[in-house]
Amino acid sequence: MTRRQARDEPVEPDEAVAADDEPADRREPAEPAGMDLVHLLREVTLRLDLAGARFAGDNGLHPTDLRALISLLDAARNGAESTPGRLGERLGLNSAGTTALVDRLERLGLIRRVRDTRDRRRVLLEVNERAVTLGRSFFGPLIDRTIALLATFEAGEQAAIRRFLSGVRDAVGEG
């Protein structure tokens, strides 16, 4: 890049050609196709993370508390039971860290421990309605805007978006 380009000054056509005459080993490598989408996904991830941190901060929560609540809600939506062990595994926490997390969320009135009716030795975790209401008050408008945006896409486009996001999720899980 010339000094004029760095200062956003107009570049004369002959100067632009001269930049292409640089030796190949000094040129920036071209980004692979699709990198613009990778960068966009990274920006979306960053903004969602910042929104989550804002929600957590506004409600006296640690970001891990929010991840735990999301994990528990996702499990319930998928019909899966949540135990402290499964939650810790999903969040990458050891037993002591998981116990501290569950104790904190229970103390805040966001989750409850319940005995499994089939195996009284086992403890299940459930999200309290208070946590759901709290989450909806903050994330509801974002969810509504996202659903409205998705409604502008045809079914085939939505299927492509679903396939892409599922593939990214799976790729992250492999790492």
Can you walk me through this structure?
The protein has a two-stranded antiparallel sheet with strand order 1-2. It is elongated, with a radius of gyration of 24 Å. α5 crosses α6 (95-107). Among the domains are: 60-127, Orthogonal Bundle (Arc Repressor Mutant, subunit A), CATH 1.10.10; 139-175. It is 65% helix and 6% strand. It has 175 residues and is mostly helical. Residues 1-10 have a biased composition (Basic and acidic residues). Residues 11-23 have a biased composition (Acidic residues). InterPro entries: HTH_MarR-typ, MarR/SlyA-like, WH-like_DNA-bd_sf, WH_DNA-bd_sf.
Task: Please render the helix and strand layout as text.
Blueprint: H1 3-6, H2 13-20, H3 35-58, H4 63-77, H5 84-91, H6 95-107, E1 111-115, E2 123-127, H7 129-150, H8 155-174
Helix pairs in contact: 5-6
How would you summarize what this structure contains?
Among the domains are: 60-127, Arc Repressor Mutant, subunit A (Orthogonal Bundle), CATH 1.10.10.10; 139-175.
Keywords:
Helix-turn-helix domain-containing protein; 175 residues; mainly alpha; WH_DNA-bd_sf; WH-like_DNA-bd_sf; 6% strand; two-stranded antiparallel ribbon; HTH_MarR-typ; Arc Repressor Mutant, subunit A; elongated; single chain; disordered N terminus
